[in-house]
Task: structure prediction
Amino acid sequence: MRAAFAALGGLIAGFTALCVAELVAAAVRPEAGPVTAVGGAVIDRTPPAVKDFAVRNFGTDDKLVLQLGILVLLAVFAMAVGVFALRHRRSGAAAVLVFGVVGAVSAAGRPEGRPLDVLPSAVGALVAAGVLHLLTGRLAPVTVPPPAAGGTGEDGEQSTFDRRGFVVAATAAAAASAGAGLLGRRLQADRLAGVSASRGDIALPAPASPAPAIPGGADLDIRGLSSFTTPNKDFYRVDTALVVPRVDADRWRLRIHGKGVARPVTLTFQDLLGREPVERDITLTCVSNQVGGPYVGTARWIGVRLADLLREAGVMPPSKGGPADQIVSRSVDGMTIGTPVEDVMDGRDALLAVGMNGEPLPFDHGFPVRMVVPGLYGYVSACKWIQDIELTTFDAYDAYWVKRDWSREAPIKTQSRIDTPRPFAAPRAGTVPVAGVAWAQHRGIARVEVRVDGGEWHTAKLAAEAGRDTWRQWVWQWPATTGHHTLEVRATDRTGATQTDKRVGTVPDGATGWHSVVVDVT
Result:
């Protein structure tokens, strides 16, 4: 019985550590919280294959799964320490400090770590150690006189503990901890509300170079087919941020510096809004997208051409004698992304985007400013929450994902996907529309073909092309017959290259292969 109460005491001490840390993090910054710090450290040290597995199986919930896993491990550790403290009270309380050390080291060791980031974990652990020491003291054995009928010990006495005192102390500790946690959440919510209000006050400028009108017929309007423009709420999000950065646009600054920069530049958000904005429809793709996967979408972006800013800073691409061949962009969360200078300055619409589908960037997608470079996978181009641009070389610096065995350069591969019919669907025999999307950003799609059960290829009807930087819808009217069938699709880009049937995974530079769907026609 004492062991069960001791485990409960350890669990309450762990709860105290988290709640107090939450309150302290409200004064420091949300990213300094122990769960976020430890989770970030785990992500930083996760092998590419494991990360790929997590994204493939959990999708955008991968971060939630990680956080829940950390909490479960913490709960088990806390209960074990509570039981250990029964025999070794002081050592048990000291063991709680291990939690603080792990959290503090993780927070300080993050790329964007600051000295004060150690405080939430350290203070939370100290308070939790005191709580565990207090609760364990209520579990110390005491002897009481036996009942009149006899006894249990040699002198007729029996051993027990201060059960009432433990319950009162545990309840008070849990209530106080919960209050601290709620106060911390409230303080953080108040701060974030102010940042959200600043985003709501932003009026995007009218583009000096508007996006061409989406041509009629670019959206085939077929049930089950992805819409040409992906709504912000449905746009994929794949990044390493356990806490989405909330940056105040009024305090945001962007520094451009480094090798070959003749005139270093520091820009404010208003500086960007005051320049000539460009509006373009661009499809983004994540390198973690499996064949047929969901991590691709199209949005209408508004921003400033990055190449113009670089030229004003005196930067020249390598093809014109510039000494830097890599742009290293840094996010406020410490992420580093390496982008070829040549690709940014070759005439494509590489943007520092401030708007997405007619509104300021959502926080999840990089508010206040992010990079968008058509034709490159996001891990080498699409830096969200950007705050620093350094010109350097690929030989001199490896960005975050390159250090984790991904390729330095990663142009998007030609891909196609069947959206309808869905896998294992049971359409009726007759004419069945087989439809989907294909993409080869910055090259464009020239042809899409579909085949059934390994037979001959049939050319699909392509939707109107909105530009070579966007995906393209397609449809083939299938004369379906009863039975079990396998549908496959392949695309050919405007260079004449047809996507390969060879299946490879996403590491190191994107998946390849034909997407297939199995259906049973009734």
Remarks:
- The chain has a mean pLDDT of 93.
